[in-house]
Fold each of these.
Amino acid sequence: MLDRLVTLQETDEKIVAFQKEEEQIPREIQEKEKTVGILEEEHSQIRTTLDELEKQISDLGFELTEVKEHQRRSQARALAVKTQREYQAVQRESDVARKRRGEVEAQIKEFIEEKGVIEESCHEVEAKMGDEVKVLKKERNEAANRLKKLQSEREGLEKTRAVEADLIDPVLLVKYQKVFERYRGKGVVRVGGGVCNGCFMTIPPQLYNQVLAQGGIHQCPNCGRIIYVDQE
C-alpha cells in the first residue's frame, strides 16, 4: 500500500508541476503586456507634448503674421506723417513691432528645434513599441500552444492518477490527500536515522521502531506526513 502511495505521489507531483507551469504562463504574458503598456503610455505622453508644441508654433505663426502686418502699416504711416512728433510716435511703434517680431521668430525657431528632438524620440519609441508588439504576439501564440500541450499532458496524468488512486484504501487515500494538499507537495516521505525528511524533525524512538518494523501506516507527529523507510 505504501508503494502505491509513493507511486501516486510521484504522479501528483508531476500534476502539480504542470499546474504551476500553467499558472506561470499567463503571468509571463502579463509582464510582456506591461512592457508594451509602458511604451504606449510613453508614446501617448510624447504625442501630447508634440500636439502642444504644434499649437504653440501655430499660435506664434499667427502672431508673427499680425506683427509683420503691423510693421507694414507702421512703415506706410511713416511715409504720410507731417510732423516730427508723429514720426517719432510711428517710429516707436515700428521699433516695438520689430522687437516683438524678433522675439516671436526666435521662439518659433526654438520650438521647431525642440519639436525635432521630440519627434526623433517619438520615432524611437514607436520603433521599440512595434518590436515589443511583435514579440508579444509571437509569445502569445507560443504560450497558447505551450499551455494546450501542458493541459493535455496534465489531463493524461490525471487519468493515470485516477487508476492509481482506485488501488489505494479509501481511508488512507483521504489521509494522504489532506497532507498532500496542505503542503501542495510531499505527503509521503522517507524517514532516515529517526528524522522525517519532510519537516526534518526527529520522531519519537518508539514510533521510529514501528516504522522500521513496516507494520501499518504511520504519520509524523510534527508535520502529519505519512512516513516510511526504504526496504532493503
Amino acid sequence: MSLSVKPNPQLAKLPVYQPGRPTEEVARELGLNAKDIIKLASNENPLGPSPKAMTAMRDAIDHLHLYPDGNAFYLKRRLADKLELTPGHLVLGNGSNEIIEFAGHAFMGPGADVVVSQYCFAIYPIVGQLFGSNIITVPARDLAHDLDAMLRAITPATRVVFVANPNNPTGTLAAPEAVERFIEQVPANVLVVMDEAYFEFLENPLDLLPRICAGRNTNLLIMRTFSKIFGLAGLRLGYGIGNPELISALEKIRQPFNINSIVQAGALAALDDEDHLEKTRSNNSAGLDYFNGELSRLGLEYVPSSANFVLAKVGDGARVFSELQKRGVITRPMAGYQLPEWIRFSVGTDAENQRCIAALEDVLKS
C-alpha cells in the first residue's frame, strides 16, 4: 500500500545504519544461551562501566520523578575543568551521533557539499544525505584518510568535512603534523568535525584543544564520547568541543533534557575514576598486542590499530562472521563499508580474546 503522505525525497535512497548485533538477538536466532555468547562487535569496554558511575546512577534513581538539569551544569563544569576550558566550549549530545546531527541542522542542506573519507564512520554520509547534502567521498590511502586529497576535494559549496582520528572502522591514525596542516588549510567557512571517540586510548595524542581555547580555528568542532573508554555506551553520551559562538549555535538545535539524570550522574562519577580508565587502557594495550601476534601467526593481514578494535582480512568476511556467530562469537562484518573480505573485532578480556582467536582459527581451518 502506498503512503498518502510522502516522506522527504532524500529518504528514498537513505541507507539504514546497521549496528553490531546484540547477544540476545543472536541467541534467539541460533538457539544459543546468551550467557555463552561474547560480543566483540561494537568497540565496547569489556571491563564494563566505572564502579563509581554505577553507584552514582543507583543513587540517581530516587529522583527520577524530577526533570533532569537541562543544562547539565555540574557535568559540564567538571568536564570543562578536566579539559581546561570553559563550559561555554561544550555541547552535550545523546551519543556523538546527536552531535553529528547538530552539525547537520546547522550547516548541511540541499546544495551543500559534505566531504568524507572512504571507509569513514557510516553515520557521516547518512546524516549528510538526511539533510539533502551532496556527499563527496575521497578515496582512502592504505585504508586511512588521505588528508591532502580531502583538502583538494573541498569546493566553494563545501560546508562540512569529517575526519575521525583514530578512524573507525580501520583503526588508522593520521600523523599529528598532517592533522595540524589539514586544519590550518581548510577554508575558514568550512566546519571541520574531528571525531576523537578513541582519543583516550592514545599514548601521545595530538591535543587540539589549545587551538580552540586560544580562539584559533573557530571552524573546528571536536567530538568525544563516554561510550568507549568510560564504558557507558548504553547511556548514550557524547560531547562537542568548539568555539563558544559555534557551541551557542548548536545549543539552539539541542532538544531540552536530551541528557537524562542517570546519564549525568554516571558520567560525572566516571570522569574521576582514574583507576577504571587505567585498567581499561592496560587491558586494551595487552589485547591489541595479543591480536597482532595471533593474526600474524595465522598469516592474516590486519591493520595496526590505534583504537580498541582490529580490522582483519579473512577472505569471505560474511562467511567468517556467520561461522563465528555459530560458535558464540559476535564480530562485525565489513561489507557495508565496502570491505567484504574483512571483519572487525573489538578488544575484549583476555579470555574473550583467546576464545575469539580459537574460534577464528577453527573457522579458517573448516
Amino acid sequence: MNGTYLLAGHRVHRMGFGAMQLPGPRVFGPPRDRQEALDVLRYAVEAGVNHIDTAQFYGPDVANELIHAALHPYPEELVLVSKVGARRDDTGGIHEAQRPEQLREGVLANLASLHLDQVPVVNLRRHPEADVPFDEQVAAMVAMRDEGLIGAVGLSNVTTEQYQIAKAMTEVACVQNAYSLADRTDQPLLDACAADGVPYVPFFPLGSAFQLGKPVLTAPAVVETASRLGVTTAQVALAWLLRRSPNVLLIPGTSSLSHLRENLAAAELELDAQAMGDIG
C-alpha cells in the first residue's frame, strides 16, 4: 500500500478511496449498479483501504448511504473524511452553502446519513467566490470540532494564504486541492503542507472530468512509461503522485471493481529513475 501517513492522528494507507463516482451520472441520483457499488466499498476496505473520502452532497446522500450500507458498523481503523460548503438541488445543480449556519447543516446531514456521532475529519470546501470571510468559516469549523461533531478540521479548494490563516487558528488535518502531473500550479501549497507534516490530498489526480483531451493520461512521457513498464497510464499517474511527496494521500474513485483493483495496484508500482526523469 506504499506506506502510511498520519491523518488527524490516525495512521492511514496512502492509497485511499474517493466515493464521488459511486452515485449516478453527474454525481447525482442512485448508482448504475447498487450491488457493484457496495462490492467496491467492501473490497476496498478488505484490501486495506482505511481512508474514504465522501460528501453528503454526492448524490445527494447517495454516497454516504452506500458507505453506511456496505461498511457499518465501521472498522475501528477506518477514517471517513467528508466535506461541507456545497449543496445540491432536485435537478442536480450545485450551489454554494458557505455561511457558518450552512456549514453546520452540512455536518449534521453527514452525521445523519453516515449514522455517526462524530465525523472523523470534515473539510471546509471553500468556494473561490464566497462572500463569507474565510476566518469566520474556519471559526465555525473549530466550534463544531470543539463541540464534538467533527474530529478534525480539513480544508479544500483553498489558497496558500488561506491555509496559513487557518493554520494560525487551528490544527489543519489535511488539505484537498486540485493537483496532477498535468496541473502543478498548487505546488507551493503542497510544499508548505509537506514542511508542516500536513497530509495533502489531490483531487482530479487523473485530470478533471471536465477537461478535454485527458492531458494526464495522454501525456507522451506517461504513455511511454506505461508501455515500457507494462502498466496502465492511470497507474503511472497515481504512482507518480505517491513518489512526488511522502505526505500525499490519494483518493481515486470508481464504481467499477476492475478499476478499483487497477488503482490499488498503483500503490505497489515503483517508478524507476527513468520514469521520474521523463515525467519530471
Amino acid sequence: MSSVAVPGCSAASAPGRQLPAGLARLSSVPGDPFGVAVTADGRWSFVSLLPNGSGGAVGVFNDTGSAIPRLLRQIPVSGQPLGVALTPDGRYLLAANGSGATVVSVQAASRDVVGTVC
C-alpha cells in the first residue's frame, strides 16, 4: 500500500489587493447582524439580524449612491435568520431561519414578505 505525504499546516497568509479608498462604507444596524446579501446592481442590501429580545428580522437597505446605505425597514422572520442568499435571477431573497426559510420578493422588499417555506 502506498502513502501520500500530507502537507504541513501553516498560519501564513498571502498579501491581497488593497481595496480602493471609499469602497468600504459602514452602516449601523439594529440587532446583531449575521449575514448579508447584495443585489447585482448594488442597489439593495439585505442583512440578517439575530434576535435581541423581540425576534429575528431581515434589514432592507437601499443604496442610492449616498455615503451610507439607508435602512428602509425590517422584515420580521421566525426563528434566527442565520443567513441570507439571493436566487440566481436576483428576484427573491431567502433567509434561513432554523426551521425553513422566509422568501422575500426583492422588488417588493420595501413593502412585504412573499411567503415562508417550511
